[in-house]
Amino acid sequence: MTILNIIDAIDRWGMKEPNRPVYIETTQTYTYGELKKTSDAIAAYLQKNIERDRPVVVYGELEFEMLTCFLGASKAGHAYIPIEAHTPKERVDMILEVANPAVIFSVKEWPDLDTEAEIVSLEKIHDICAKSWILDVPLKPVDDSETYYIIFTSGTTGVPKGVQISHKNLLSFVNWELTDFGITQGMRFLSQAPYSFDLSVMDVYPALTSGGSLTPMRKEVINDFKKLFTVLPTLDIEVWVSTPSFMDICLMELTFDGKHVESLKIFLFCGEELPKMTAQKLVERFPKARIFNTYGPTEATVAISGVEITPELLEKYSRVPIGYVKSDTQVYIMNEDQEVLAEEVGEIVIAGPSVSKGYLNNPEKTEAAFFNYKGQPAYRTGDAGKLKDSLLIYDGRIDFQVKLHGYRIELEDIDHHLAEVSYVKQAAVVPKYQHHKVQQLVAFVVAHPHDFDKEFKLTKAIKEELSTSVMDYMVPQKFIYVERLPLTANGKIDRKGLMNEVNAT
Ligand code: AMP
């Protein structure tokens, strides 16, 4: 099936089969009928009260109302920005500064933060959804190249970048996922990734457009091994979507296998390198399931390549390949904007209909990363790779962006916020790797004179202050105090040298 319009495809289920389950929580199941009714109401509210072109923020975790607000915004022609609850206030503030949203749907309680946007509490969301709305003018949903959602990612200057994904971008991704991965109508998907991480798009839209359902796995479960391991063997889902890091945790539970979780048919991984060992274990534990490694940046709408993991593939490659490029897209391997020879390593450049129009209100960063190539919108990924037998092979980063547990982090982003901590004069953060995977972030810090009698107390104070401005996964695990940071010949901090030092043993 080819989807022509995301909103119509979801609504069709609400009209045709209103009792079909869409969101399955432990204590409650929501239906497509409810999703349609509530999102229509949110759309009506927006149309009556808010000018069409302003984005709206949806703040919360994995609640059903988040979906209601996303879809409501899309139906009324607004781009939505998901922000995860408990994001540090300073970061939320920076996002608001960049995005200037008209409304904030606060599904979780809004932090004590001043904003000109109208804050709509959960109680008010429920009131809006309970009301019958009559509209004088029909709704005009987001379409074509209008922005459907905006996801904020780490930026090198310390200010997050808002990646704008249009309806057309999303359509290209969803149609590919519904075609190439064995997904059929009405499947039950795991919803584990926060909505502010574009991996969540890999479950939400393919599920909702094909009459499937989402089973959320909340943070309380994910962060508590005992709870997680109790829940895992009882999961009644068919499509698994997560980062490899989350799978590594799940595989620690020995009963997490095809015998105990028979329902699992498809595994989709994205967001970071799939370690060969993880892939091998999965193939052994779930011999009947289909397992896919997919690759892509938020800027090209979730993923643009994928490959099925088989024992033969694992036998042939020392590093798991990142896949065959989807048919509507081109990948060029480039060096200084010139295509390299076949099978040579260079920067992965993606061109095609799922490439974003750029970063919200950030022409400088947009111009640096996006361009037009052979008549198509193109994006420089900063990833190194090569194409061999049409298969894309990943070869690390060419800059200082890293992935930790699947989260994308610009090391310069942490440096910037560390340098603003009152105890810190200068800092540089580097990753410590094991098997191509970041194990730890290590901060080299030149500290201001201080009164702490022990270094660990200084570290604790720095971590505390830092966590008010960056996400918790960006706080380095290890701190090394130095008199000064080493410099390169042209006077820049020698981050590569520090990386070598940390990774020498
Ligand atoms: P994000 O925008 O958060 O999805 O992060 C995109 C980046 O994650 C890519 O540019 C890669 O560096 C990395 N990445 C995503 N998927 C994979 C994969 N399958 N293998 C290796 N790296 C990946």
Descriptors:
binds adenosine monophosphate; 27 strands; 30% helix; eleven-stranded mixed sheet; GMP Synthetase, Chain A, domain 3; four-stranded parallel sheet; Rossmann fold; 505 residues; alpha/beta
Give a brief rundown of this model:
This protein has 505 residues and is an alpha/beta fold. The protein folds into 2 domains: 6-294, ANL, N-terminal domain (Rossmann fold, 3-Layer(aba) Sandwich); 405-502, ANL, C-terminal domain (GMP Synthetase, Chain A, domain 3, 2-Layer Sandwich).
* Helix-strand makeup class: alpha/beta
User: Share of helix among residues?
Assistant: 25-40%
Broad shape: globular
Radius of gyration: 23 Å
- What's the main sheet like? 11 strands, mixed
Overall pLDDT: 96
Strand content: 25-35%
CATH topology of the largest domain: Rossmann fold
Q: What's the architecture of the largest domain in CATH terms?
A: 3-Layer(aba) Sandwich
> Number of domains in the coordinates?
2
Please identify the top-level CATH class of the largest domain.
Answer: Alpha Beta
Q: What is the number of helical segments per DSSP (H or I, 4+ residues)? A: 16
